[in-house]
Every structure is written in C-alpha cells, then in structure tokens.
Structures
1.
Amino acid sequence: MGTIDPDKHHGGESFTRENEAALGTVVATAFHKSHSFSKPVQDAIELTAGMGVVGDAHFGATVRHRSRVAADPDQPNLRQVHLIHEELHDELRSKGFDVAPGVMGENVTTRGVNLLALPVGTVLRLGREAVVVLTGLRNPCKQLNDYQDGLMNAVLDRTPDGNLVRKAGVMAVVVGSGTVRPGDDIAVALPPEPQQALERV
C-alpha cells in the first residue's frame, strides 16, 4: 500500500464544505498501557499528533506492535489509533458473539461512518480538535479466537470474486492533537483522486 506522510495533512485545514463527506458519532473511547487484547473503556482519550493515544501501548512515532518491533524497530508507526465501527459489533452480536466497545482492542468505537469503505488518506476529525488520517485495515489475528472461538473467521469475509475482506476495523495516525469523548461528532474528508482502497497495515 502507499505510505502516509502526516506532514501533508494539517488538521482542520483539510476540512471544507467541498470535501467534508459524512458525519458520524464517537460511541466509546479506550486505551491500555500494555499489549493486552482488549482495552478498558475510558471517559475520554487524548490524541497527540505524530504519536497516538496518550497512555496506550501503541503510543509512539515508530512501530510498537511487538512482532514488527522485532523485525525493524525504526519503521514508522502507522497503527497509532485503531477504530472499529459499532455496526460490526451489532453484526457479531447477532451471530452470538459477546463483543462491546474496547473488547477487540480498538481505541475509538464509531457509529454512522462506513470506515471500511474509506480510502487511504481519509481525514477524520474526532470532536472539536483531534484529527487522524487513515493508513489501512487492521489485520485480524488469532487472539480473536482466544477471546471467543470463531471470532476471527467472523471478522473475515470474501468478495464474490474471492478477495479477502478484513472487517476488524481501520488504523490511523494522529495529525491533530485533541481530546476525544463519547458523543463527539466525526467529520470525514476524502483525499483527492485517484483514491486507493484500504489494505492491511
């Protein structure tokens, strides 16, 4: 996939009437200081530009995922913030899975925005100040099955032509610092054409 250059994004300057595409809502916020599977829900989270969610295990300019640190600790951290749409929780609960905000490790649970359909480089304003740029898809791992048997397969799908669809949320980098709280609005600004579909990151 293409790389993201945060220096090309300047917070609110990305938002105009012409390119603001949608409006959703923050349902929940979460972070955890350790690399645990789930994250406890918090009243608010603080986002720091270029770093991520304050207090979270993935906070940092360079990669924090343990296997990736082992491979190359100097890689840029394109997974600073993990977002999952609450509509996925609805789908999973209808299939008998016990899921809720933070359970699958996301920092921000959203509603009303089709996160998976957004292209690379989409800018999301979360609340009044915090701004993130989407970098790719979360790649589901076997820890999902450790939490509840069959959950990993439940967040994977196939298109009619056989391509794998990853539904376990999206990843982003922070380009505008700010506080994010449940109930905050989400504004969406699409990048210019040509646009590139999200891939695993």
Note: The first strand starts at residue 20 and ends at 30.
2.
Amino acid sequence: MGYSIAEQNGKRYIKTSLRNTCEYLLTKDYTDNWTGEIHETFCFWAHSDWKYSLEEHGFHLHTATVPYANPWIVTNRFEGKAVIYTMDQEKGQLVELPYPYTHVVLIAQKR
C-alpha cells in the first residue's frame, strides 16, 4: 500500500490511490480481526473492470447491473471519519470527491 504525505495550504494529507483509500476505508474498523482483514481485498476491480472481463469471456451485462455505495457503510464507516479529495491541476486546489462505491450488482448473461 503505497502512500506519501502531501501538504496543501498548511495542512497535511495522505496521498495514495483511490483503490488504496477504498481498501483502508473498508477495513479500518475491523480492529479485532485486523491481521486477517489485511489479507483480504475488498476493491479487487472497479465496475468497468468487471464489465470488461465478463464481456471478454462471452457475457453481456444486463442494464440492471449497477455499482452503489451502501448507505449504512457510508453513514457509519465513512462520514465524519474521512474525506477524499482529488487535485484540480488547473486551479491547484483540492476538490472533494463523493464516497466510493462499496458494492456492485452484476447481472451477466451468456451470449
């Protein structure tokens, strides 16, 4: 899990990939089983990766396939605990991002 510390307007931030951020957010609360949890991967692929792989293997994704953020997880695990930003390169300022998807419902049909 690579990261660095970055400073912006006198504040320090952790700079890492969105995948690493999601992995941390989805495992940070499992303190009683941390050793086991760090060996699991929650954010293996993005929705687009699943779509690509399934289509490469002869499947078609149904239009009801959708990624979503579980409202309970967002409210109880993310809000008030972390804020995710990206850097607007043109303006040189941080822009807050929405919380990431936590789940995806995949409905694939064999062609």
Note: DSSP finds four helices and eight strands in the chain.
